[in-house]
Specification:
By secondary structure, this protein is α/β, with parallel strands linked by helices. It has one helix and nine strands.
């Protein structure tokens, strides 16, 4: 009887700990793209912690490029595009739209701020 109780407690603790760890390390940031703008235009991350950027367009196809991380993808209207990164160094890194969307396109950029 004691073995079963101990085993149940041990398994329950392991499962609970795993779920808590998954919740703590799951970091999603939603970024909305629309003509000439990313919202938010500043995203914060921590060195060594994975994060997923969930990109959505409100109006048309936009591009998402973050050269320092080797990322390039399209953002399609009413669809999620997911990009997972694990920053390895602190600093500020630019991302921008690389599909021309009209006058003002050159202002469509943002910054990923990675803290130690």
């Amino acid at each position: 009887m004691k073995r079963r109780v101990f085993a149940a407690l041990l398994i329950g603790s392991a499962v609970g700990g795993s779920l808590r760890l998954a919740a703590e390390t799951s970091n999603e940031v939603k970024i909305l793209a629309m003509k000439f703008d990313f919202t938010p235009d500043t995203v914060k991350a921590k060195v060594g912690q994975p994060m997923t950027l969930v990109l959505t367009s409100m109006d048309r196809i936009h591009g998402f490029k973050m050269p320092d991380f080797g990322i390039r993808t399209d953002i399609l209207p009413d669809q999620e595009t997911r990009v997972t990164i694990t920053p390895q160094k602190a600093g500020s890194f630019t991302f921008f739209c690389d599909i021309f969307c009209g006058d003002g396109h050159e202002e469509m950029n943002g910054t990923l701020v990675v803290e130690a």
